[in-house]
Amino acid sequence: MAAVEAFGDRYSGTFEKWARRDADALARVDPGELESLLDKSFTVTRSRRADVDLALLELLGSCRAGRTEPRIEVLHRAVLGALTQRLTGRGGTGFEDWLRLSVLAPEAVEDVSAVQRASACHALAALMRPPLVTLLAATASGDPDPTVRGAALDALTGQPSRLASEALLAAAIERDAKERSLARLLLADHLSELESAGSLASAWDDTLGARLVEAALPMLVDEDWRVASRGVRLARHCEFEAAAPRCIEALFAWERRETVQEEATGLIGMRRVRHELADLLRAGSGLKLGIEPRRWTQWWRGHLAGDERPRVSSRTVVPDFYGLELRSGAVAFVIDASGSMDHPIPGRYADNDGPTRFEEACDQLELALQRLPTPGAFQVVLFSDTGERWSDEPRLVSDTSRSSIRKWLRRNPPGGGTNLSAGLDALLPRDADGRRRADLLAVDTVVVLCDGQTAEDARWARAWLAAYNESAGLVFHCVQIGGGDAFALEELAKRTGGTFVRVGR
């Protein structure tokens, strides 16, 4: 018996050791070795089983955090499957009963770490049933650890329940600054997901919208453009009559801030926020008056006086890149350079006698750079089996930089596979310790061009955004050439408020 108990200690110790590795080290864990240990862990005695289960729960959380790496996603599925299998029973609800009664119950706080409780919240999200919404809402408001409260809110995001909406809204208003920031981001994602799924009406109403005004509208003029952008996403769900004058005030504020910037790096986010504010006003008024706040002021005065006739003309939109309008002063282009890009766009030219997809992408890039507002900055990344960045930092649009990018593209012809993760990895700056730092990224908009099914899927896209986009605040516009699957591209665009377009068949 002592030998069997020692094996239990060994398994839990190994799982805990792996759980506390960084992502690069965790990715080196052999899936075969993990599977073998998972099988053997079923033999431990009842007295050691709880230790092994909690160690696996901690490992599950670490794997979830690193799922942007495909090898770690394999580990995540294996650990979740093993935990579910170990704790099945009680009519098939054994796993969630264990999480509810032994991990997240208030009396378990002393015996279960915050890391393990946070992992339990994420695990419950995959099993979501109405009773679990109540449990997670209680955890989001009552757990003593802010990491666990945040994990519970994350698990509630997208759940078609008014209780989930109330929990997210309460945290967005009542928590301290750091927790409010995360809660507002999650609330914006929550409302977007409900809207996409057609379930907004069942989980959100005017009463909640009136309370949201308190959280959302002050964000529109925050000094941080990322905060303002999230405020716009939230303000879409406020009463328009309350949001409109604050949006116009914010347009004036961001115009002033942009006017005093002398360097393109200071424009990151500013131009994009102005367009987002104008989009909100357009959606509520039905008018296209652009980003000039004085036009909107004139309209608002007429609106208050009962005169709904537009007194100013709408603007003409000139597409910048494959029909997209790039409304930013700092854009990164992440372009597929796989072997299939060396062929023409399907159905575009008779007998496939025309420029290759890569050549056309280079031409579209040149046009987009000509149309970027001055001053403006850009970055270019090519991806195939690996990713390669043109410049260490985004560079100002100029004759010199356009000439440089043309030469660089000619030196890097297409070839290899379609690994989008390699392209986005190359885009992200790294600090002195080699860690990816999305908060150091000097662009606010990313345009992805791909001509085939990527090695990544929608689940990977969600994991990437969860890992990096809270600090980066990026909008993704994605272009798919041809009729293949584009799950990752569609997810990146949908979840960041960007646009997905398909070219060719």
Automatic annotation (TrEMBL):
It comes from Rohdeia mirabilis. This is VWFA domain-containing protein. It holds the Pfam family VWA_3. Residues 330-492 form the VWFA domain. Gene3D superfamilies: von Willebrand factor, type A domain (3.40.50.410). Signal peptide: none annotated.
